[in-house]
Amino acid sequence: MLKKIDFYIIKKFLGTYIFAILLIISIAVVFDINEKIDDFINAPLKEIIFDYYVNFIPYYANLFSQLFTFIAVIFFTSKLADNSEIIAILSSGISFKRLMVPYMVSAAIISSLTFTLNSFVIPPANKTRIEFQNKYVSNKKVDYAANVQLQVSPGVIAYINRYDDNLKTGYRFSMEKFEGKSLRSKLTAESIRYDSAYHWIVRNYTIRDFDGMEETFRKGTRLDTIITIAPSDFLISRYDAELMTTPELYRYIEKQKERGASNVKPFQIEYEGRIASIFAAFILTSIGMSLSSRKVKGGMGVNIGIGLILSFTYIMFSTISSTFATNGDMSPRFAVWLPNILYIIIAIYLYTKAPK
């Protein structure tokens, strides 16, 4: 059961964490206003506050969560050590292992909050925030695609040479149906226009049916048909993964993998990153506590400096490995988990050394 000293440490941990987050968010908001002040002139004040900044704050608070978990641990634990409180606690018969309990409880609270925000709260908020940015700041919506190839269903492959979302129209369309390795039917058309709910209008089309050595042709100027693809399946923006809840993201990845889509890696990285972030808080908390629990010559400034170096290298390493996964052959799961694996080794080493 948690004791009075545990609640004291949890209060210190979470209080420092919240204070650090509020401080950095306040700075981030000031810099963001300064950067976008010209764009905000044309936007109503109500939309700036409620559509943008109300959704801006949780997004960036969650983005900096891992960094400030680490900094909070380093800061308040160094202060406890500098005031000889850690020595007093250990001298009272509490083991170093037992001292880690309130730290892990705090890390569990932060991890739960981070995962809930990442999975269910921030994605809907991002939709409103990004819509505001597209309208008033910079439109980064993807409305054009080229050389689109998707599996509509098993054995059915669709191809669009280019697609313009402003006109809801694709050009030089083809759809092939296979049975095993044999081509049974091929539809080609000059254009195809998306209506709604998988309803497409095909114009100036030719259908070729194959039956053994026999081939038949059908032609027409318009064909209304149902094709189970939508523009959102291939008009992919780098922001799209941030707009989906975790269950939606998982379903989207599975659907795109079934269709043989090649742009699924950023979504896999986002999905794996949300899972990995649960463990990151525990790893960084363990490193921070083990590193700063001793009173060192030079005061807590040394510990804070080392903590900042470690936290920034963790973030940099995570970014580099994710880039390799996006642009190279590295597995997204391995890329996301590699920093955690390496820092687990560091955490174990520091944990074993700290009590000595």
Largest sheet report: 6 strands, antiparallel
Could you tell me the radius of gyration in angstroms?
Answer: 27 Å
**Strand segment tally:** 6
Mean pLDDT: 90
List the helices and strands and how they pair.
Blueprint: H1 4-40, H2 45-63, H3 65-82, H4 85-91, H5 96-137, E1 144-153, E2 156-164, E3 169-179, E4 182-196, E5 199-211, E6 214-226, H6 246-258, H7 265-292, H8 300-327, H9 332-353
Antiparallel strand pairs: 1-2, 2-3, 3-4, 4-5, 5-6
Description:
The protein is built from 9 helices and 6 strands; from the N terminus they run αααααββββββαααα. By secondary structure, the chain is an alpha+beta fold. It folds into 2 domains: 4-138 and 264-353, no CATH class; 144-230, no CATH class. Strand 1 (144-153) and strand 2 form a beta hairpin. The longest helix has 42 residues, at 96-137. It is elongated.
Quick take:
By secondary structure, the chain is of the alpha+beta class. It has helices at residues 4-40, 45-63, 65-82, 85-91, 96-137, 246-258, 265-292, 300-327, 332-353; strands at residues 144-153, 156-164, 169-179, 182-196, 199-211, 214-226.
Descriptive keywords:
alpha+beta, 6 strands, 9 helices, elongated, 2 domains, 356 residues
